[in-house]
Amino acid sequence: MQHLVDTYDLTDQQIQNLLRDAKNFKYQKPIQLLRDKLLITLFFENSTRTRSSFEVAAKRLGAAVVHLDPSRSSTKKGETLEDTFANLCAMEPDGVIIRHSENERPRELADMEMSPVINAGAGNYAHPTQALLDLFTMMEHFDGEIEGKTVAIVGDIISSRVASSGIRLLTRMGMNVVLVAPKPFMPESDLPQYEKLDDVMDKADVIMSLRAQLERHATPIFENYDEYAKHYCITKERMGDRNILLLHPGPVMRNIDISDEMLKDPRCKVLEQVKNGVYVRMAVLKLLLLDA
């Protein structure tokens, strides 16, 4: 039984297979490979893109999907998550997709070895399918030539599971990752760190902007989001005519993370990431429910 809790769960060959399958799914309508499969989604945090992307991916491959709303589940009556999971697995699903606020929860459920577990985002540590779809988007943009390219991750890095997962996967793939944030937003890391966005604009091949999560910090760093935006918003003026790929995992805070003008710019691939997320998640479901 194989799980996807972190990208470390995948071999290099499996990652290459995922990228190949995602590309095939994108350009050729797939047959219903999973028409006899059943998936359960269990989201303890709000989600628009990830939950709907997984559901679309599953249904495009012919699988059935059942969503359990934790706010209406027996966890509200005091049932442990482990018992909830065990009861769901007793119904013999082919996989469980979970999002949780605690870093270790998906791994703990995977270790029960009752059903394949797919981590749809946990705490501030792991969001493996987001990292994979970001990698796929870069691979397509650079025609597969990503080794040695420099990715600047900008924003509230310490709070971001997208950044954490991305750092592990992109460095593994031979990319150079630099971090751009005010010191309170910066994690402990051996990677190059910058406080000023302008210091990396001429170094970056890719900018991965993150949502400013000021609410996660007990001590105010900026008086408001407008003050943050003065330093870290990706604007047309900052980008100039540089040929930089601009990414964001969503939701984008307009004119705080990325300006309205840049969201319309062809260098910005935010909606392409959403599109690619469906194909990458189709590839993940194929891997875990069929190939593994």
What does this structure look like?
Residues 2-140 form the Aspartate/ornithine carbamoyltransferase carbamoyl-P binding domain. Its EC number is 2.1.3.2. This is Aspartate carbamoyltransferase. L-aspartate binds at residues 77, 161, 211. Belongs to the aspartate/ornithine carbamoyltransferase superfamily. ATCase family. With 292 residues, the protein is of the alpha/beta class. It has two domains: 7-126 and 276-291, Aspartate/ornithine carbamoyltransferase (Rossmann fold, 3-Layer(aba) Sandwich); 129-273, Aspartate/ornithine carbamoyltransferase (Rossmann fold, 3-Layer(aba) Sandwich), CATH 3.40.50. 37% of the residues lie in helices and 14% in strands. The chain is built from ten helices and nine strands. It has helices at residues 12-27, 49-60, 81-89, 105-110, 128-141, 161-172, 225-232, 236-239, 260-263, 270-291; strands at residues 38-43, 64-68, 95-100, 117-122, 150-154, 176-180, 193-194, 206-209, 245-247. The strands form two sheets. It has a five-stranded parallel beta sheet, covered by helices on one side. Strands 2-1-3-4 form a four-stranded parallel beta sheet. Helix 2 (49-60) links the parallel strand 1 and strand 2 (64-68). The longest helix is centred in the last third of the chain and has 22 residues, at 270-291. The chain is globular and about 55 Å long.
